[in-house]
């Protein structure tokens, strides 16, 4: 018996990849922020990083399973990514800069999904 293997959904794959990358970078940035000397001044950033990583993971999974709530989830993810990018941009270190860039890219990709 031959099982049919579904190919990755090409129309979603770029956004799935951006979401998973953003989630990973947010987790890494979160860890690095905790090691900074000014950790108290990063409290809002750290909280946004955790929310963003969760939202991105959720959006990536929702696209993978073709959730009926996909557009709402991607819209939420884009908004949270925007907030996280704004907060990360307040800091000049490399990990926050890279995270802000990943968040902006993910927000852009999620908005493309919403407009499909």
UniProtKB/TrEMBL annotation:
Annotated organism of origin: Clostridium aciditolerans
Pfam families: Csp (PF03860)
Transmembrane domains' residue ranges: none
InterPro entries hit by this protein: Csp_YhjQ, YHJQ-like
Tree of life domain: Bacteria
Entry protein name: Four-helix bundle copper-binding protein
């Amino acid at each position: 018996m031959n099982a049919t293997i579904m190919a990755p959904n090409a129309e979603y794959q770029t956004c799935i990849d951006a979401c998973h990358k953003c989630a990973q970078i947010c987790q890494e940035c979160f860890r690095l922020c905790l090691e900074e000397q000014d950790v108290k001044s990063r409290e809002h950033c750290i909280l946004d990083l955790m929310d963003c990583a969760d939202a991105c993971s959720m959006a990536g999974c929702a696209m993978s399973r073709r959730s009926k709530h996909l557009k709402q989830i991607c819209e939420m993810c884009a908004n949270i990514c925007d907030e996280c990018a704004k907060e990360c941009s307040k800091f000049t270190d490399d990990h926050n800069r890279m995270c802000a860039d990943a968040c902006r890219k993910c927000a852009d990709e999620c908005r493309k999904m919403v407009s499909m």
